């Protein structure tokens, strides 16, 4: 029998503050994964087997940021699948956009810093490749600006 392939579901959050800013986290130092160390990051992570993707998303947001999310504001806006780097298999990423009830971020050990930024700053943030693809798609199709209620040319 062949080697078993892992299939990991991940939920990632584009969080919008009450003042229409977007949250950018900075990952902590990860010696075992230097490509993630001290790099821009979105809140989110692996979804447990017994969770729905949205349940996993809300759990990860609470664990990593302490933020509460406005009921009814969560929208899935992008999905992607890519090979896992550290085990045989794949990651399937679900990207969501949502509004937080406040701007009082309380980061976990997984992140070293956070900041609320404008849409332009969010788009030009040097995201890692898997997140860059999602942000570029959302920008190109004006999904971010529409969610923020901004007009675009």
Essential attributes:
single chain, 153 residues, alpha+beta, four-stranded mixed β-sheet, three-stranded antiparallel β-sheet, 4 helices, 7 strands, 24% helix
Fold and architecture overview:
The chain is 24% helix and 33% strand. The protein has 4 helices and 7 strands; from the N terminus they run ββββαβββααα. The N and C termini lie far apart (55 Å). It has a 4-stranded mixed β-sheet with strand order 4-1-6-5, with helices on both faces. A 3-stranded antiparallel β-sheet has the order 3-2-7. The chain is of the alpha+beta class. The chain is globular.
Helices and strands in order, then pairings?
Blueprint: E1 6-16, E2 22-27, E3 40-41, E4 43-46, H1 53-65, E5 75-83, E6 89-99, E7 111-117, H2 119-124, H3 129-140, H4 143-148
Parallel strand pairs: 1-6
Antiparallel strand pairs: 1-4, 2-3, 2-7, 5-6
């Amino acid at each position: 029998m062949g080697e078993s392939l892992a299939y990991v579901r991940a939920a990632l959050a584009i969080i919008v503050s009450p003042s229409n800013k977007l949250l950018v986290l900075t990952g902590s130092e990860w010696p075992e994964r230097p490509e993630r160390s001290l790099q821009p990051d979105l809140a989110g992570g692996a979804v447990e087997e017994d969770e729905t993707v949205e349940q996993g998303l809300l759990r990860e947001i609470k664990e990593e940021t302490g933020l509460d999310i406005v009921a009814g504001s969560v929208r899935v806006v992008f999905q992607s699948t890519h090979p896992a780097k550290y085990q045989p298999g794949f990651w399937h990423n679900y990207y969501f956009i949502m509004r937080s009830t406040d701007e009082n971020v309380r980061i976990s050990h997984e992140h070293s810093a956070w900041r609320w930024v404008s849409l332009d700053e969010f788009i030009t943030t040097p995201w890692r490749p898997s997140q860059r693809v999602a942000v570029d798609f959302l920008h190109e199709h004006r999904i971010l600006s529409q969610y923020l209620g901004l007009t675009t040319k």
